[in-house]
Amino acid sequence: MLRHLILLVILSLVTLWPFFKKGFFESHDGEWMVIRFTAFHQALTSGQFPVRYVERLNNNYGYPVLNFLYPLPFYLAEIPKVLGLGFVDSIKAVFIASTVISSLAMYWALSRIATYTAAFAGAIIYLFIPYRFVDLYVRGSLGEIVALAVVPVIAGCILKLREKKQIYAPILALAVGLLILSHNVIAVLFLPFFLVMSRIILGKNIIGYVPSFILGIATTTFFWLPALYDLKLVRISQIKVSEITDHLVDFSKLIFPSWGYGPNPNSPDGLSVQIGLVAVFIFLATLTIMIATKTKNKQSFSSNNLISYMLIAFVLITLTNTKLALTFWQNLPGADAIQFPWRMHSILIFITAFLAAFVIDSAKNKTLLVALVAVAAITSTIFYTKPSTFVDRGDNYYATNEDTTNSRDEYLPIWVRLKPKDRPAEKIELVGPGQIVTKSQEHLKYEAVYESPAQTSLKINTVYFPQFVAKVDGRPSQISYDNDLGVISVKLPSGSHKAIISYTSSPVARASEVISLLALFGTGVYFFTLWRKPKIISDS
Fold first, then answer.
1. What is the DSSP string of 151-186?
2. In 3D, which of 5, 13, 45 has the Cα closest to residue 399?
3. Which DSSP category does 135 fall into?
4. Which residues have C-beta within 8 Å of that of residue 77, sequence separation ≥ 6?
5. Where does 69-141 have alpha helices with state H?
6. Torsion over CA of 465, 471, 472 and 477, rounded to 10 degrees?
7. pTM, whole model, 2 decimals?
8. Which burial class, exposed, middle or buried, applies to 291 when counting CB atoms under 10 A from its CB (0-12, 13-18, 19+)?
9. Is cis: bond before 50, omega within 30 of 0?
10. Rounded distance between C-alpha atoms, residue 83 and residue 81, angstroms
11. pLDDT, tens digit, for every residue of 97-113?
């Protein structure tokens, strides 16, 4: 077992060699993740928690992207940042740690249901599969990579519950929560899959696992509830970030090896959506074994139902990536939230790892077959560990970048009619008669003492969002944002007064945070109760 773990760590690090070079490399989202993290870090260290609105982005006019974007990768990146790493290296550290942990976690999960040798093979497949390298080196999808580290933990907890070890029920709840915080879309795809898997493995005893899923979802209410509630306020509710049907491909693209760095798999240099020849072989081998046995599987896997379920899911997910699924996507409610059909490949990675362990455990010469599968998986994908272009821009480039970090600025509020092209000369301005005597600015808090002979207006060059409140001499004042840039404007009375505009938690956000804390407390009590539960010792 220890030998397997050491080999998995070494192999994981081999796949990650570009992350150990100085600087970073270009990908669809990778450098944007660094920019977002710098803005996240600035907001967090300024006292905003949870981080929802970042002031620096959108040309220093502010942007509520983190109210909607999965937060866990950025909180994790704070660990290496606190330890002294720079912004780029902190993001790279999360990529590295998540990838290594994902292979070890898959090994642990599979060893609950298969031999250590078979679990080792499955963990290698989980690591060396084409879409993994698409995520790492083409898309730079930090959230999906973190999610792939959490997915096997959920599977392992479900399998532990099969062994009547209820202590894993609250751990399952925490893992479900971590998956949602890692990548909300991946969570939406995986949670129904895991619920069905739980039903197959644990039977009708839904009390054993359903509360864990409910608790896991509840612990993350602080993130998804405000995001859902505020979604109608931003452009993404009115536009399509991606036309999902444009990414459907011919079946051949899923089978034959290819590689590219473009955003659309149908473009000449588009990203690869291949399943991988090794995955196809494993699927066919599993299908052959299942047909050959016909009756109850006598291998280490306890039920044919689980393998049958994964085979069916493998086929259906594969088909949803082809042009045959055009009608399906056109009529699927909420399909636009998924954005890209090839995101379903994340589930294929998990399924293929499980099926690989099944195939190995069904073989007579396990060691030889593991060697063949490992060599085939590694040699068929190792050349995909090459990014398109290495860059060394330095932390300052990312820490001062004021882009929205979205291709279509989809998290701009709907009342912003004109995206600012330059940063504002001043954050606090008086529009009308009078003068500002003193003014000060902290993170999302603006103060001004002014004098005016008549009614005037105070303009704050920050894009309005409902969490902003204004007070004049301590009394609430109405905010206006009916202007092209959608920035904050407050009407002020004549005379000498003090105005304060600040960002606060909305009632929905505060309620969601309370729900999350209660759910987290409940999960802790659940764990402590099971941990303290006396063991029944039978007489020998």
1. HHHHHHHHHHHHTT-TTHHHHHHHHHHHHHHH-HHH
2. 45
3. I
4. 37, 41, 90, 91, 93, 94
5. 72-82, 87-110, 116-127, 130-133
6. 60
7. 0.93
8. exposed
9. yes
10. 5
11. 999 999 999 999 999 99
